[in-house]
Amino acid sequence: MASTPARNGPRIWVWLAWAALLMVADQITKTLILNHYQLGDSTVITSFFNIVRAHNTGAAFSFLANAGGWQRWLFTGIGAVATIFIVWQLRAHPGQKLFCFSLASILGGAVGNVVDRLMHGYVVDFLDFHWDFLSGLFHGGHFPAFNLADMAISIGAACLILDELLRMRRER
């Protein structure tokens, strides 16, 4: 793993710009939801998708949502530590495109959700997918509501796994 990018390779600023773009898009969509929906409001878009306004004081799948408030600072701290670690990794490996795309996507999403926690005390979620086959797992078949930041984190995590699988394959 080279610690410096190739002369024509991407620099850390490319990845930080991608993270910033994701964070800004996330915050714009959340602001639209906050300005046009009351908590619990919903608009049916398709037979399996709604726009809703939901607040998540916990983590993924509302983990620790009812913990009494301390979790806000725990998840904010985790986001801050993750930000420092990711920026360090982006500096160390700016030429590894898939790896850096993955980390920058996770960074943009994590910062977007940390901004929510700091500004509101909760994360604004608004994408509600539901299918009957999910009824055994989720109430009414509704997957927990999520947002663009969560999508960026999920895509980044999936690409990070793909990057590792490709790396292992190259080493054979």
Fold and architecture overview:
A hairpin with a 2-residue loop joins strand 1 and strand 2. A three-stranded antiparallel sheet has the order 1-2-3. The chain has one domain (12-171). With 172 residues, it is mostly helical. It contains four helices and three strands; from the N terminus they run αββααβα. It has helices at 12-36, 70-92, 97-120, 148-171, and strands at residues 42-46, 49-56, 123-129. Helix 1 packs parallel to helix 3, helix 2 (70-92) runs antiparallel to helix 3 (97-120) and helix 3 (97-120) packs antiparallel against helix 4 (148-171). Residues 1-7 have low confidence and may be disordered. Helices cover 56% and strands 12% of the residues.
